[in-house]
Amino acid sequence: MICAAVCLAAAAQLKTAPLFGDGMVMQQRQSANLWGWAKPDAIVSITTSWGAKAKAVADKQGRWKTTVQTPAATYEPQTVTIKSGKDKAVLHDVLIGEVWFASGQSNMEMPLKGFDACPTEGSNEAIATAGRYKGKVHFVTVPSMPQVEPTDTITVKWEDCTPATARNFCAAAYFFGTLLQESLDCPVGLINSSLGATRVEGWTPRELLQTYPDINLDKEMADAVGHIAKLKEQDNLYNVNRDLSLVFYNGMIHPFVGYNIKGFLWYQGEANVVYQCDDYARRMTNMVREWRQRWGMGDLPFYYVEICPYDWWWAKPPLAACAMREQQLKAQSMLPNMGMVCTNDLVKDYEHWQIHPCMKREVGERLCYWALSEAYGMEGVSCKNPTYKSMEIKDGKAIITFNDAEEGFNRNYNVEGFEICGPDSVFHAAHAGPSGNRVTVYASQVKEPVAVRYCYKPFQVGNLKNNYGLPVVPFRTDDFPILP
Asked: Are residues 371 and 233 in the same domain?
């Protein structure tokens, strides 16, 4: 009876959903969702330091939800007061600004301090100067929390940006957020919910997964129950099987659905190179469509990162990584408000077997260019990588025309990465001469060109970029079979 009374008392307490706490950043100029739990049928009232008020009535299960109007962005710390009967919760140090949600696998998870034997370039300087964003950038890191069923609760904490906190926050999102803060001059909130080695299927809701013929979700979840329970006993959910479907959506995305954000950042794909890579564009855009629908805020921007050059020595077939990059580029045109960051140039020549390349600042900045140009309409900022448009054969040479290179390229000689083939389908390293938005490609061994490829290998670093330093996306003009 005592235990039951304690449980009932705990259930009666006023609680808010995970992201509503001290230091949170609320999306500016919106009817912002607020929700949580109270006594069943209880009246919940919300007041804010900026004058907005709201009320809600808890349902029979004690869940309540309402909206409150947020003002224009401000660095002035605000408070949100929530009352229900004698229960009261006051949220302090609330900022109003721009909020972005980051997810994916280990290249998004990778912190500013880097992984062991896997550094983030320029990390010490970035950490040392992080204090300049104190009171301007707040962030949340979501712990590994796989769940067989959707959960509404998870323990997270907003942190202010300091050298001590920034070093552990994900590098790509950090560089995105700090450049965004400087560019817009307003507070920025960053939510990082990512976990290494996870597939896109792991972040996908049940309803979609049930339509995929290769996934037996009932069996997979039956096996996952014992696995996750054992990890909980060991207090080490980080060691979860990363190949699992669904569980990361349930535990690391679902609790935050509906929190007002400006858009999503996504850095994932490596784990799918050897699993359904030929269907990745459809599966990723299915996930995006479902996330957007559940958030209920329209076609929220979704900016994502192409997998980097890496020597996939164990991948079968050998060009599976190239097929994945094609799928990632394809996804960009399948839904509105999608944008891909190319990383073909963001790998050191010695990082053949480093799947976590060190140049995360450039990744974050390129994600930010997409946001500034497309989401915020900042004129003059370029964000789109040059992509293959068409090929013309003339006088034994191939002339390639590109999109998004109207102002030319960064060089007119020593271009690396082009190959050309004739009717025998044997590719040879080629000379390439850029001029305007075109590149003339030729090789002495090929008299009758049939096809051209650029950096179409698992690991090949390209050096051709447009005038804004954005690299040409790897491509091929042929349709030769590369997957079984």
From this structure: yes
- Check residue 316 and give its pLDDT: 82
Domain span at residue 369 reads 97-375
The DSSP-derived string for 409-448 is BS-SS----EEEE-TT--EEE-EEEEETTEEEEEBTTBSS
Structure tokens at 72: 């224009």
Instruction: Please provide the DSSP assignment of 91-113 as one string.
Output: EEEEEEEEEEEEEESHHHH-BTT
Dist CA 119 CA 445 (whole Å): 42
Give the CATH number, domain containing residue 186: 3.40.50.1110
Examine the pLDDT at 8 and tell me if it is beyond 60: no
Q: Where are the beta strands (DSSP E) in 105-164?
A: 137-141, 159-160
Q: How far apart are the first and last CA of the chain?
A: 64
Is the same domain home to 290 and 397? no
Residues 149 and 232 in one domain: yes
Tell me the pLDDT tens digit for each residue of 287-308: 999 999 999 999 999 999 999 9
Number of domains in the chain: 3
Q: Which residues of 391-427 are buried (b: 16+ CB within 10 A; e: fewer)?
A: beeeeebbbbebebbeeebbeeeebebbbbbbeeeeb
* Cα–Cα dist 465/91, whole Å: 47
Distances (CA, A) of 397 to 400, 408, 421, 473, 480: 10, 20, 11, 21, 20
333 shares its domain with 209 = yes
The CA R_g of the chain, rounded to the nearest whole Å, is 24
Tokens at 462, concatenated:
């390209």
Task: Name the pLDDT band for 4 (thresholds 50, 70, 90).
Answer: very low
Three-class SS of residue 272? helix
Question: Does 255 fall in a domain?
Answer: yes
Q: What's the pTM?
A: 0.95
Supply 169's token pair.
């926050």
